[in-house]
Amino acid sequence: MVRKIRISQILLHIVILFLLFLTFFPIFEMLNKSFKTTIQDIHNPWWISFPLNFENYKLAWSYVGPYIMNTVIIAGSISAGILIVASLAAYVFARFKFPGREFLFILILVLLMIPGILSLIPSFVLVRDLNLLDRRLGVILPGIATGLPFAIFLLRTFFAGLPGELFEAGQIDGISPIQAFVNIALPLSTPILSALLIMNILNSWNEIIWARIVLTSESMRTISVGLVPFTETYFAQTRSSGPALAGYVISSLPLVIVFFFVSKQFIRGMTSGAFKM
Amino acid sequence: MLKNYKRYGQYYLLLLPAFILLIIFSYYPSFSGLIYAFTNWDAATASWVGLDNFKKILNDRILKESVSNMLILIGAGLVIGNVPQIFLAELLFNLKNRRLSERYRFLFTLTSLVPMVVIMLIWTQLVLNPSPEGLMNSILLKLGGDAKGWFGDPQMALFSMILVGFPWVGGINFLIYLAGLQGIPESVLDASKIDGCGTMRRILFIDFPLIRSQLKFFIIMGIIMGIQGFGFQLLITDGGPGTSTMVPGMWMYKNAFKYVKFGYASSIGLVMFVSILIVTLLNLKFIKSTEEEVG
Amino acid sequence: MKKLLFSVFFTLLLSALVFAGGQQEEGSKEAVKKKIIIDGGGGIVQFNSTKSMEKTDANPYPYNELETLCTEWEAIHPEYEVEILDQSYGGGSDKIIPLLAGRKAPDLLFTLTINAADLGGKGWFLPLDEYYDKPNPYIEGNKKWKDIFVPSWFDAMSFPDGHIYSVPLDHIPIGIIYNKDIFEKAGISSLPESFGELMETQKKISDAGFIPYFPLYVWYDIFLEGSLFADLLPQIDVLRPDGWSDAEEIVRAYKKGIWEVDGVRNREYFRMLKEKTKYYPEGWQSFDAFGNFLQGKVAMMEGVGIHLRMTRDDQQREFNFGYMPYPLVTKEDSPFGGKGIVRGSAGYSSTWFLTNSAKEKGTVDGAIDLMMFLTEPSNNARLVNTLEAMMPASLDAEVSPLFEPLVDKAVEDMNNDFCDWHVFNSWGYLGSEYYEFFLQLVQKYELSQITIDEALAQLAEQTEYTVEEMIQKNNWDTSAW
Question: ipTM greater than 0.90, yes or no?
Answer without folding.
Answer: no
